[in-house]
Amino acid sequence: METYRTPDARFENLPGFPFAPHYTEFEGMRMHHLDEGQGEPILLLHGEPTWSYLYRKMIPPLTERFRCIAPDYLGFGRSDKPLGIEDYTYDLHATSIRALVEELDLRDATVVVQDWGGPIGLRVATEMRERFKRLVVLNTGLFSGSKSWPTPGFMEWRNFAERVGLDLPVGRIMQASTATELDDETLAAYEAPWPVRESKAGVAAFPLLVPLSAEDPIAGAMRTVMDALRGWDVPALVCWSDGDPVFPLKAGHAMAALLPGSGGAVHELTGASHMLQEDRGEEIARLILDFAR
Predict the structure, then answer these.
(1) Is 242 one of the annotated active-site residues of the chain?
(2) Is 80 annotated in the active site?
(3) Helix (H, G, I), strand (E, B) or coil at 4
(4) Who contacts 102 (Cβ-Cβ below 8 Å, separation ≥6)?
(5) Which of 8, 9, 167, 275 has its CA 20 to 30 A from that of 260?
(6) What domains lie within the chain, and their CATH numbers?
(7) Is 35 an annotated catalytic residue?
(8) pLDDT per residue as tens digits for the range 159-211
(9) Does residue 145 surpass a pLDDT of 80?
(10) Among residues 72, 80, 244, 279, which one is catalytic?
(11) Is the pTM of this model over 0.85?
Protein backbone atom coordinates (compact mmCIF):
# COMPACT_ATOMS: atom_id res chain seq x y z
CA MET A 1 0.00 0.00 0.00
CA GLU A 2 1.54 3.31 -1.10
CA THR A 3 1.49 5.95 1.64
CA TYR A 4 2.38 9.58 2.24
CA ARG A 5 4.09 10.86 5.39
CA THR A 6 3.53 14.53 6.23
CA PRO A 7 6.82 16.35 6.90
CA ASP A 8 7.37 17.07 10.60
CA ALA A 9 7.94 20.74 9.79
CA ARG A 10 4.22 21.10 9.05
CA PHE A 11 3.48 20.57 12.76
CA GLU A 12 5.93 23.06 14.23
CA ASN A 13 4.61 25.97 16.33
CA LEU A 14 0.92 25.22 15.89
CA PRO A 15 -1.18 27.52 18.10
CA GLY A 16 -2.26 25.93 21.40
CA PHE A 17 -0.59 22.63 20.56
CA PRO A 18 2.62 22.11 22.57
CA PHE A 19 2.22 18.32 22.79
CA ALA A 20 4.99 15.85 21.94
CA PRO A 21 4.31 13.21 19.26
CA HIS A 22 4.26 9.47 19.99
CA TYR A 23 4.16 6.67 17.45
CA THR A 24 3.14 3.03 17.09
CA GLU A 25 3.11 0.83 13.99
CA PHE A 26 0.13 -0.80 12.33
CA GLU A 27 0.59 -3.09 9.32
CA GLY A 28 3.80 -1.33 8.34
CA MET A 29 2.37 2.17 8.74
CA ARG A 30 3.22 4.73 11.39
CA MET A 31 0.33 5.86 13.61
CA HIS A 32 0.59 8.96 15.74
CA HIS A 33 -0.99 9.69 19.11
CA LEU A 34 -0.68 12.24 21.88
CA ASP A 35 0.08 10.92 25.37
CA GLU A 36 -0.31 13.57 28.07
CA GLY A 37 -0.79 13.36 31.84
CA GLN A 38 -1.05 10.47 34.27
CA GLY A 39 -3.85 8.46 35.82
CA GLU A 40 -6.69 6.49 34.26
CA PRO A 41 -6.49 6.53 30.45
CA ILE A 42 -8.95 8.54 28.43
CA LEU A 43 -9.05 7.83 24.70
CA LEU A 44 -10.02 10.91 22.66
CA LEU A 45 -11.23 10.00 19.15
CA HIS A 46 -11.64 12.66 16.47
CA GLY A 47 -13.93 12.75 13.47
CA GLU A 48 -13.87 14.07 9.90
CA PRO A 49 -11.96 16.04 8.61
CA THR A 50 -10.09 16.68 11.85
CA TRP A 51 -7.19 15.20 13.79
CA SER A 52 -5.91 15.25 17.38
CA TYR A 53 -5.56 19.04 17.17
CA LEU A 54 -9.32 19.15 17.81
CA TYR A 55 -8.71 18.10 21.44
CA ARG A 56 -6.08 20.73 22.29
CA LYS A 57 -8.52 22.68 24.53
CA MET A 58 -9.68 19.62 26.42
CA ILE A 59 -6.37 17.92 27.14
CA PRO A 60 -4.89 20.40 29.69
CA PRO A 61 -7.87 20.28 32.11
CA LEU A 62 -8.33 16.53 31.60
CA THR A 63 -4.75 15.85 32.69
CA GLU A 64 -5.84 16.81 36.23
CA ARG A 65 -7.14 13.23 36.45
CA PHE A 66 -6.42 11.34 33.24
CA ARG A 67 -3.70 10.11 30.97
CA CYS A 68 -4.93 11.59 27.68
CA ILE A 69 -4.42 9.44 24.57
CA ALA A 70 -5.47 11.24 21.38
CA PRO A 71 -4.65 9.29 18.21
CA ASP A 72 -4.72 10.36 14.59
CA TYR A 73 -6.42 7.81 12.35
CA LEU A 74 -4.47 6.55 9.38
CA GLY A 75 -4.84 9.25 6.75
CA PHE A 76 -5.07 12.02 9.34
CA GLY A 77 -2.78 14.22 11.44
CA ARG A 78 0.77 12.94 11.84
CA SER A 79 -0.18 9.37 10.93
CA ASP A 80 0.81 7.85 7.59
CA LYS A 81 -1.67 8.34 4.77
CA PRO A 82 -2.54 5.60 2.28
CA LEU A 83 -2.98 7.23 -1.13
CA GLY A 84 -5.99 5.30 -2.44
CA ILE A 85 -9.52 6.27 -1.39
CA GLU A 86 -10.35 2.56 -1.66
CA ASP A 87 -7.67 1.81 0.96
CA TYR A 88 -9.85 3.27 3.70
CA THR A 89 -12.50 1.08 5.33
CA TYR A 90 -14.47 1.02 8.54
CA ASP A 91 -12.58 -2.12 9.51
CA LEU A 92 -9.20 -0.45 8.91
CA HIS A 93 -9.99 2.40 11.29
CA ALA A 94 -11.56 0.22 14.00
CA THR A 95 -8.83 -2.40 13.83
CA SER A 96 -6.02 0.15 13.99
CA ILE A 97 -7.52 1.83 17.06
CA ARG A 98 -8.06 -1.56 18.68
CA ALA A 99 -4.39 -2.32 18.02
CA LEU A 100 -3.39 0.96 19.68
CA VAL A 101 -5.44 0.10 22.80
CA GLU A 102 -3.67 -3.26 22.99
CA GLU A 103 -0.21 -1.82 22.27
CA LEU A 104 -0.58 0.76 25.06
CA ASP A 105 -2.36 -1.81 27.27
CA LEU A 106 -5.11 0.66 28.18
CA ARG A 107 -7.33 -0.53 31.04
CA ASP A 108 -10.13 1.10 33.06
CA ALA A 109 -10.33 3.52 30.15
CA THR A 110 -12.83 6.22 29.28
CA VAL A 111 -13.48 6.74 25.58
CA VAL A 112 -14.61 10.09 24.17
CA VAL A 113 -16.17 9.92 20.71
CA GLN A 114 -17.48 12.47 18.23
CA ASP A 115 -18.49 12.29 14.57
CA TRP A 116 -16.70 9.23 13.03
CA GLY A 117 -15.16 8.65 16.46
CA GLY A 118 -18.57 7.22 17.42
CA PRO A 119 -18.76 4.30 14.98
CA ILE A 120 -15.05 3.60 15.49
CA GLY A 121 -14.74 4.11 19.24
CA LEU A 122 -18.04 2.55 20.30
CA ARG A 123 -17.23 -0.51 18.22
CA VAL A 124 -13.79 -0.82 19.81
CA ALA A 125 -15.23 -0.33 23.31
CA THR A 126 -17.96 -2.95 22.86
CA GLU A 127 -15.45 -5.42 21.43
CA MET A 128 -13.00 -4.76 24.29
CA ARG A 129 -15.41 -3.94 27.08
CA GLU A 130 -13.13 -5.46 29.71
CA ARG A 131 -10.78 -2.51 29.06
CA PHE A 132 -13.37 0.31 29.21
CA LYS A 133 -15.27 1.69 32.19
CA ARG A 134 -16.93 4.87 30.82
CA LEU A 135 -18.34 6.25 27.57
CA VAL A 136 -18.51 9.94 26.66
CA VAL A 137 -20.55 10.51 23.52
CA LEU A 138 -20.60 13.82 21.63
CA ASN A 139 -22.49 14.60 18.39
CA THR A 140 -22.18 11.31 16.54
CA GLY A 141 -24.30 8.49 15.22
CA LEU A 142 -24.35 4.83 14.32
CA PHE A 143 -25.48 4.82 10.72
CA SER A 144 -27.70 1.76 10.80
CA GLY A 145 -30.26 2.68 8.15
CA SER A 146 -32.96 4.09 10.42
CA LYS A 147 -35.87 6.14 9.04
CA SER A 148 -34.28 9.34 10.38
CA TRP A 149 -31.01 8.77 8.53
CA PRO A 150 -29.54 10.27 6.44
CA THR A 151 -30.38 13.79 7.57
CA PRO A 152 -30.62 16.59 4.99
CA GLY A 153 -27.57 18.20 6.60
CA PHE A 154 -25.53 15.05 6.10
CA MET A 155 -26.62 14.62 2.48
CA GLU A 156 -25.62 18.19 1.72
CA TRP A 157 -22.18 17.46 3.19
CA ARG A 158 -21.83 14.10 1.42
CA ASN A 159 -22.79 15.51 -1.97
CA PHE A 160 -20.27 18.31 -1.56
CA ALA A 161 -17.52 15.92 -0.46
CA GLU A 162 -18.20 13.54 -3.33
CA ARG A 163 -18.09 16.43 -5.80
CA VAL A 164 -14.77 17.91 -4.61
CA GLY A 165 -12.98 14.64 -3.77
CA LEU A 166 -9.28 15.18 -3.06
CA ASP A 167 -9.77 18.95 -3.25
CA LEU A 168 -11.79 18.96 -0.01
CA PRO A 169 -11.04 22.30 1.76
CA VAL A 170 -10.38 21.26 5.35
CA GLY A 171 -10.09 24.76 6.82
CA ARG A 172 -13.28 25.95 5.18
CA ILE A 173 -15.14 22.87 6.41
CA MET A 174 -13.88 23.39 9.95
CA GLN A 175 -15.06 26.98 9.96
CA ALA A 176 -18.48 25.91 8.69
CA SER A 177 -18.66 23.24 11.41
CA THR A 178 -18.05 25.54 14.38
CA ALA A 179 -19.90 28.43 15.97
CA THR A 180 -16.53 30.00 16.84
CA GLU A 181 -14.69 32.33 14.47
CA LEU A 182 -11.38 30.61 13.78
CA ASP A 183 -8.33 32.76 13.04
CA ASP A 184 -6.02 32.13 10.11
CA GLU A 185 -3.40 30.36 12.25
CA THR A 186 -5.96 27.89 13.61
CA LEU A 187 -7.37 27.19 10.17
CA ALA A 188 -3.83 26.59 8.89
CA ALA A 189 -3.22 24.18 11.79
CA TYR A 190 -6.25 22.12 10.82
CA GLU A 191 -4.95 22.00 7.25
CA ALA A 192 -1.35 21.21 8.24
CA PRO A 193 -1.49 17.40 7.80
CA TRP A 194 -2.40 17.59 4.10
CA PRO A 195 0.10 19.78 2.22
CA VAL A 196 -0.40 17.95 -1.09
CA ARG A 197 -3.61 16.97 -2.83
CA GLU A 198 -2.93 13.23 -2.96
CA SER A 199 -2.53 13.07 0.82
CA LYS A 200 -6.27 13.74 1.31
CA ALA A 201 -7.54 10.29 0.31
CA GLY A 202 -8.57 9.48 3.89
CA VAL A 203 -10.46 12.76 4.20
CA ALA A 204 -12.21 12.12 0.89
CA ALA A 205 -13.09 8.53 1.85
CA PHE A 206 -14.97 9.06 5.12
CA PRO A 207 -18.16 10.68 3.73
CA LEU A 208 -18.45 7.89 1.15
CA LEU A 209 -18.16 5.18 3.81
CA VAL A 210 -21.30 6.35 5.64
CA PRO A 211 -24.11 3.89 4.80
CA LEU A 212 -27.26 5.42 3.32
CA SER A 213 -29.50 2.36 3.63
CA ALA A 214 -30.03 -0.59 5.93
CA GLU A 215 -28.73 -2.93 3.22
CA ASP A 216 -25.23 -1.46 3.29
CA PRO A 217 -22.77 -3.94 4.90
CA ILE A 218 -21.39 -1.17 7.12
CA ALA A 219 -24.93 -0.50 8.38
CA GLY A 220 -25.09 -4.13 9.48
CA ALA A 221 -21.80 -3.80 11.33
CA MET A 222 -23.07 -0.71 13.10
CA ARG A 223 -26.30 -2.45 14.10
CA THR A 224 -24.10 -5.03 15.81
CA VAL A 225 -22.51 -2.18 17.80
CA MET A 226 -25.95 -0.79 18.69
CA ASP A 227 -27.13 -4.18 19.93
CA ALA A 228 -24.02 -4.51 22.08
CA LEU A 229 -24.53 -1.04 23.56
CA ARG A 230 -28.16 -1.80 24.50
CA GLY A 231 -26.97 -4.68 26.64
CA TRP A 232 -24.04 -2.90 28.30
CA ASP A 233 -24.82 -0.95 31.45
CA VAL A 234 -21.58 1.04 31.45
CA PRO A 235 -21.65 4.63 32.79
CA ALA A 236 -22.22 7.00 29.88
CA LEU A 237 -22.18 10.78 29.52
CA VAL A 238 -23.98 12.21 26.49
CA CYS A 239 -23.20 15.83 25.54
CA TRP A 240 -24.80 17.37 22.45
CA SER A 241 -24.81 20.78 20.84
CA ASP A 242 -28.03 22.48 19.80
CA GLY A 243 -26.68 23.79 16.48
CA ASP A 244 -25.52 20.70 14.56
CA PRO A 245 -27.19 20.24 11.14
CA VAL A 246 -25.70 16.75 10.71
CA PHE A 247 -26.64 15.33 14.13
CA PRO A 248 -29.50 17.48 15.49
CA LEU A 249 -30.36 17.46 19.17
CA LYS A 250 -32.99 14.74 18.72
CA ALA A 251 -30.16 12.43 17.67
CA GLY A 252 -28.53 13.08 21.04
CA HIS A 253 -31.68 12.01 22.85
CA ALA A 254 -31.86 8.89 20.69
CA MET A 255 -28.25 8.11 21.60
CA ALA A 256 -28.96 8.56 25.31
CA ALA A 257 -31.97 6.24 25.01
CA LEU A 258 -29.67 3.62 23.47
CA LEU A 259 -27.17 3.73 26.36
CA PRO A 260 -28.48 2.22 29.62
CA GLY A 261 -25.73 3.87 31.64
CA SER A 262 -26.75 7.38 30.58
CA GLY A 263 -30.07 7.27 32.39
CA GLY A 264 -31.54 8.82 29.24
CA ALA A 265 -29.94 12.18 30.08
CA VAL A 266 -28.41 14.57 27.55
CA HIS A 267 -26.30 17.55 28.56
CA GLU A 268 -27.24 20.19 26.00
CA LEU A 269 -24.61 22.71 24.94
CA THR A 270 -26.31 25.80 23.63
CA GLY A 271 -24.68 27.90 20.96
CA ALA A 272 -22.33 25.13 19.81
CA SER A 273 -22.12 23.48 16.40
CA HIS A 274 -20.90 20.13 15.05
CA MET A 275 -17.28 20.49 16.20
CA LEU A 276 -18.21 21.14 19.81
CA GLN A 277 -14.71 20.41 21.08
CA GLU A 278 -13.69 23.60 19.30
CA ASP A 279 -16.69 25.59 20.52
CA ARG A 280 -16.91 24.34 24.13
CA GLY A 281 -13.85 22.17 24.75
CA GLU A 282 -12.98 23.40 28.24
CA GLU A 283 -16.59 23.07 29.40
CA ILE A 284 -16.84 19.52 28.06
CA ALA A 285 -13.60 18.63 29.85
CA ARG A 286 -15.07 19.86 33.14
CA LEU A 287 -18.24 17.86 32.56
CA ILE A 288 -16.11 14.76 32.00
CA LEU A 289 -14.16 15.39 35.20
CA ASP A 290 -17.38 15.77 37.18
CA PHE A 291 -18.77 12.63 35.54
CA ALA A 292 -15.66 10.63 36.44
CA ARG A 293 -15.89 11.77 40.07
Answers:
(1) no
(2) no
(3) strand
(4) none
(5) 275
(6) 3-292 (3.40.50.1820)
(7) no
(8) 999 999 999 999 999 999 999 999 999 999 999 999 999 999 999 999 999 99
(9) no
(10) 244
(11) yes
